[in-house]
Amino acid sequence: MTASEREWREIGHNSFGPDAFINQGNLHVHLPLPPAPAKVARVIPYLLNEDLVYRKEVVDQLDKLLPPSPGFYNAALWGLGGSGKTQIALDYAYRRCVDDECCVLWVHADSEATFTSDYKAIGKKLGISGESLDGPELLAAVRDGIEAQPRWVLILDNADDLGLFGVGRKGGSLAKFIPGGLQGTILWTSRDGRITGTLVGPSRGIEVPSMTKDEAISLLEMSMSDNMKSGMEDAEIDRLLEELQLLPLAVSQAGVYMRRTRTPVKEYLNLLLQGTSRWDLLKINDSDRHRRPEVSNSVLETWKISIERIQEESKLSYRILHVIAYLYNQDIPHQLMQAAGQGSASSQEDENAYRQNTDLEVLQAVTRLVEFSFLHTRRVEEGQRSYEMHKLVQEAIRYGLRVQQPEKSPLGESTALTDSPQNTEAYFSAIALKIVNDVFENVPLPGYCYIPHAIQVGEWAEVNGKEVEASALLCRVSACMYAYGRWREREPVDRKVINLRTKALGEKHLDTIEGMAILVVTLIWLGRYSEAEKLAEQVLELRRQSGSLCDKHPKMITSMAYLAIIHQFQARYDEAERLTEQVLSLQREVIGDDHPQTVNMKENLAIIYFSQGRRKEAEVLMKQTLDVRREIFGDKHPATIRSISQLAILLSDQGRYDDSEKLAKQALALYQAVLGSHPHTFSTMADLAEIYIFQGRYVESEELNKQVLSLQLRDLGDKHPDTV
C-alpha cells in the first residue's frame, strides 16, 4: 500500500467538522461543504400554466379543503386520466407560492423510483446530503426535513398505484415516508377513487369530472390561433365538444392540432366523424410543457396504464370493462354488468372462467371500474343500478384490442405479442352481443333502455362474424320499437337487418326478404307510401320467385295485405277494397275467420267503407271487429283500443258527438295506460280535439291540439303526415 493510499484510509476512519483544513505531510484536503438549505424550498417540475382554464367548482372545493391557514390539511384530486387533475394541482402549487415563507414541493408518486428520485431532489433543496444517506434513511430524513419547515405544501402527483402506499397490500409501504405533524398541506392526485377513505379522509376527496361546456369552449379557444376563432360556428363547436366528451386532454389536443395544421373546426369535425381518420386524430401524441415528456398525451393511449393495472388486479373487472366497451355508453343496466361477468362466448376459454361469479363479486368488480372513473353510477332506483361509460374510454379499449390483433407473417405465423382468442375484439364484442340477445330472448318486451345497447352490439357484427345472430336480435328490437311506436328510430334498424342478411345470406334468402317486409311496415307508419308500395311489390315478387311459398302461404297473404293497406292510405279505395276482400277470402280459408290477422283486415275493410261513404256497412263491420277483439284480447289490448278509437271516429262523422266523445275518452285513457307516449295515443288525442270542435268547445280543442303537435314533432318529425 502506498503512503497516499494509507493516508486516505486513515482519513476515512475519522470525523472532521465542516470545512476542516487538514495538513498531513504532502496531503491537503478540504472536505466538501453540505449543501446550504434554501431559505424557502421550491421544487415544481413544470412551468406555470398561463393558459389554464379556471374550473370554479373544483377549485372552490380544493381551496375549502386546503386553506393557507395554520394547521395540517390533506386532500385528493381523483378522476379519469386526461381530466386535468395535474393542471389543477399545478395551479394550486403556484398559488401557494405567493406566500414567501411556504415551501412548495412536488413528487411524482407513480412509482417507487420516481418517488425516491424526487425526494432526493427535495433533500438537496432542504440541505439534506444524499452522500451519507440512501434508501429508507434518505426518505425518512427528507420526510423529517419537510416536517421541520414552518409552512409547507407537498403535491403527490399520479399516485395511481395505491399499493405503493399500503392500500390493499401487505409489506413495505412508502406511506411511512409521507410527512405529517401539526402544520403542512398534502395534495394527492390519482386515477383511483379508492384514495378517498384510505390515504385521505372520506370527505376529503374531489372527483375531477369532464369540463363544463363553457370551460371546454374556453380551453378550445386558448389552444387555437386568433384568426381561427372568428370563423367558428356555435353548432360546429357544440358537435365537436360532444364528440370529445368535454375531456380536457381531448379538447386541448384538438385545439393544438387545428392551430398547427390550420384546420378549421368544420374540417376537423368531419375528419373526426370519419371512421378511417378518427383514430388517427385521437392517437396524436403532441408534447405538452406542463406534462411529463415520457407520459403519452394520446387520447387513445392515456388510459393504457390504468387498464393494465385493472388487468393485474381483477380479471373480472377487466373482462366486464372490455365487454361493455361494445355496448351503448349511456344507461347500462346492472343486469348487463352481471351478465358480462358470467359465461363465455368461446369454447376454448379456460375451465375456471365458467365458474359463476356471485352478485357480490360482480358488484365489487364494477366498483373498481367506478373508482377508476371508467364508469359512473347513473342512478340507483328501487334496487336497480345503471351506469354510464365515457365514450372515449370505450374507443380507447377497442383501439387497444385492434392494435394488438395478430398479423400473419409471410410464413403464416402470428406476429402479435398475445395470440389469446379470449383477448380480442371479436371475442369481447361477441359476448356483448350474446348478453344483450339473452335479454330480448327471455323478455318479450324489455325496458326501452336495452334497445340502444342492442343497436350498438349490432354494429360489431362484421367484426365478430355474427351477422345472422345480430340481425335476429335487431328484428326483436324492431318489434319492440313497433310496440313503442318509435317509427323514425325503427327505420335504420330495419335497414341494418337487411344489410346484414344480404351480406351473410344473400338478397333472395327468405330471411332477407322478411327483413324487407318489416321495413315496408315501417315506411307505411312513416307515411312514405310510394316507397312502401315499391318495396312491398318487390317483396311479393321475391317471395313468388323463391319457389318455396305458394299463393296461400301466410307470408304471401301478408304481402298482399301490405299493398292493400298502402292503397288505402293513398286514397285508392277501389283498389284497396278489391285487394282487401281478396286477402280476407284467403285468410278465412287458411287461418280462419277469427284469427287476429283476419280481424285486422276486417277493420281495414270497415275503414275503406267509411272512406267511401258507406257508413252503415262500416259501423256494422267495426262493431263486429270490436266484439271479436274484446273476446279474444280483452279491453286493454292495443288492437281492442284501436277498434274503440275507430268506432269513435265513425260515430263522430254521423253527428253522434256525445257517444263519440265517450268512446274517444275511453280509448285515450286506455292508450295512455297501456302504451303511454305513442303515435296511437297522439292520434286519439287529435280525434278528441276534433270532436270538441264539433261540440263548439274551441278552447279545449286548441289546447289539446297544441299538445298533440308538440308530441308529434318530438316523436314523428315535422314531415310525417299526421304532423302535417
Give the CATH level 1 class of the largest domain: Alpha Beta
Could you please say which CATH topology of the largest domain applies here?
Rossmann fold
Find the count of extended strands (DSSP E, 2+ residues).
11
**How much strand content do the residues show?**
5-15%
**Principal-axis shape:** elongated
Q: What would the average pLDDT be, to the nearest integer?
A: 84
| H/I helix tally | 31
Helix/strand-derived category reads alpha/beta
| Helical amount | 55-70%
**Oligomeric composition of the shown chains:** single chain
Number of domains: 6
Distance between the termini: 108 Å
CATH architecture of the largest domain: 3-Layer(aba) Sandwich
Could you describe the largest sheet, including whether it forms a barrel?
6 strands, parallel
Organism: Trichoderma asperellum (strain ATCC 204424 / CBS 433.97 / NBRC 101777)
GO molecular function, one term: kinesin binding
Main location: cytoplasm
Pfam family, one: AAA_22
Keywords, separated by commas or semicolons:
724 residues, alpha/beta, Rossmann fold, 6 domains, 3-stranded antiparallel β-sheet, 11 strands, elongated
Describe the structure.
With 724 residues, the chain is α/β, with parallel strands linked by helices. The chain has six domains: 1-33, no CATH class; 42-207, 3-Layer(aba) Sandwich (Rossmann fold); 213-282, no CATH class; 304-407 and 416-421, Arc Repressor Mutant, subunit A, CATH 1.10.10; 550-633, Tetratricopeptide repeat domain (Serine Threonine Protein Phosphatase 5, Tetratricopeptide repeat); 641-724, Serine Threonine Protein Phosphatase 5, Tetratricopeptide repeat. The protein has 31 helices and eleven strands. The strands form three sheets. The protein has a six-stranded parallel beta sheet with strand order 3-5-6-7-4-8. Strands 9-11-10 form a three-stranded antiparallel beta sheet. A two-stranded antiparallel sheet has the order 1-2. α12 (304-313) crosses α13, α22 runs antiparallel to α23 (529-546) and α23 (529-546) runs antiparallel to α24 (554-569). It is elongated and about 110 Å long. The chain starts with a helix and ends in a 9-residue tail after the last helix. The relative contact order is 0.04.
